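Q: Entry one of two.
A:
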Amino acid sequence: MKHTLFTLLAICTMAGLSAQEDAPLKFSLQEAVTYALEHNYSAINADRDILDAQKQKWETIASGLPQISGAINYQNQLIQQVVQLPGPIAGGDPGTFVEVVFGQPQQINASATLRQQIFDGSYIVGVQATKAFLSYSANNKEKTEQEVRKAVVEAYGNVLLARESVSIFEKNKATLDKNLFETQKLFENGLGDEESVEQLQITLASVENQLKNAIRLRDITLQMLNLVMGLALEAPTQLTQDLDDLTQQQIDFSLMDDALVLEDNVDYKLAMNLNEQRYYEWKLARSRALPTLNGFFSYGALSFADQFTFLDSGQPYFEFSTFGLDLNIPIFSSLGRSASTQRAKIALEKAKTQLTEAEAQIRLQLENARSNYTLAIEQYATSKSNLGLAERIERKNQVKYEEGIASSFELRQAQTQLYNAQQEYLQSMIEVINKKTALEIILNDNSL
């Protein structure tokens, strides 16, 4: 009995976990953006770039701090070198030589060396430049986040667009099916003409193809949204906002009056980073004309033996120690260093010009973004009005066609006009959403 209860409990627990795994993930647009900023692949790598920059900063600093290295050298002279000495040294006759082998065949040399950089102009510049590099990495991460946000907004809107398109095409198809059925019956009873049937068949075939394509796009756009958000392509994602409500939410005329704070614009900050980078490159080129001074201290021991007895107690070791300074003074480089410094100065001046250009481009982009956003709102209002007119015209032609007053050609024209108005209305809503995002990015306004 206990075993049965345990089994049932385990089955229920596993079923609950499975249900949780299959539960759809629901997102508003803001929630989708927030999720993507944490899980998007590019955003994750941007965080890693920040960590990499921090490690690179310490790597640069550490290069000027004390460095200790150790070395062990073991040699075994399998055949020792023979040296000939004059015979009289060993009591021999003049003109003769004595063959002598110096030392023992095996030796070991262990040493440790401490090196300290005392002065190096390039090191000082390198440490100063690490702050600029960290700033660049942070700004590049912000740029990545803006791109992720823009991609999520576009993907989210495309999913809603595809979903609304499917709904509209299904509604249009249902209306056309009814019209075709009635017209077919009238023709079969001799009360209508064949052309009316054929006109409706043409329109229906076109709408059916558009419906099939919209259904495919609905799945593809959802997968694209999942990819941008960092989810599995087949994740059961659900969107909690519809296209019309989201469009109304994105209409904000107060953005037109928001002032541009140039220093908050990420493109301007990246241009400033380039200036800082070129400035430190110029300082680095100049620092190469300065002398460098390094100190070192080493300590070690030597030992010799006929056999490998270096690990035995009592093995004699002979200590040695050295202290010294290395001073390197650049004297003449055939004007090579001067040319390098001048090139770095030219690059710095170019970066300053690019910064001025970037400022002008950003101001122009702002005016263009405001104009595009205003136009998108105006087109949305116009397309919404046009859709209402097209719906009324289509309904009137439906009534006229049913009463035999309007021809099938006139009905088809009204229906085509309606379908075009529907797509223009949907597209106008997407434009409002996307153009608002583009304007907010320039203003560095992260509200949705």
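Q: Entry two of two.
A:
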Amino acid sequence: MEDALTFLKDWTRDGLLPWSAQCAAVKHFGTSHAAMEGLALENGLFPARYQRNRNMISTAEQLRLFQSRVAVIGCGGLGGYVIEELARLGVGQIVAIDPDIFEEHNLNRQILSTPATLGKAKVEAAVDRVAEINPAVTVTAVKDAFCLANGFELLAGVQVAVDALDSISYRLELAEVSTAAEVPMVHGAIGGWYGHVATQMPGDTTVQRIYRHWVAGKGIEQQLGNPAFTPAVVASLEVAEVCKILLGKGELLRNRKLSIDLLEMEVHEISYEVPMKLVDAA
């Protein structure tokens, strides 16, 4: 790969490697965009496509994002935006998990859905979309429902699991598997004008406590529906949490839930810290 590295360095200007040079290298050396991006970042060359990251994310951190593997469980309203943003951020490997196909009622809010993709598997649309916007990112499509039976296998090698589900029962199963597999979980939920986000690290029980009064059913989304903007807002907050986990920086929404009301434009923080007396008793 020395010749390829020399090729990339010759095209780098002010520390930035143009996308056109990456494409030329891929063609000239008969390799993949992922291989070229990894080679560049490992040698301190910053792909120009990420230059607006550079003031907040170092080259070493961009490499860490590229070397990361994130599972997105659910590829609809929340999941589509999560996948889009992770790919644009430069997360190198995304596992897209969803058993469903696109239907007409998805068109108002699910960024991966178009009239042309109606009837198409959501995970296949995710693969196609990421290939279009960032070919250096690898998407593994899993057209199946996440559950206790397959959860450990699906989270193998994953650094973060992103909850983009619309079922509380499956969400609780994801929380259980994530804890057992010692994988951080970023939880998001939406309904109408409202949404919330929380991050659950292994050993925490935030998600279980959020839904401690749940009995049955999918949740408030079924009653309130969802407009175009709510999933975009909540998904973006989820991706911010994923980025912080992968880079080990910033303050996470751990043991707390950020509750968002877009109708009144209010944001509230709800604590799920375990009272110290309970910790002492345990």
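A: Comment on entry two: The beta strands are 16-17, 46-47, 69-73, 93-97, 138-142, 160-163, 185-191, 194-200, 256-261, 266-271. The domain at 68-271 is CATH 3.40.50.720 (Rossmann fold).
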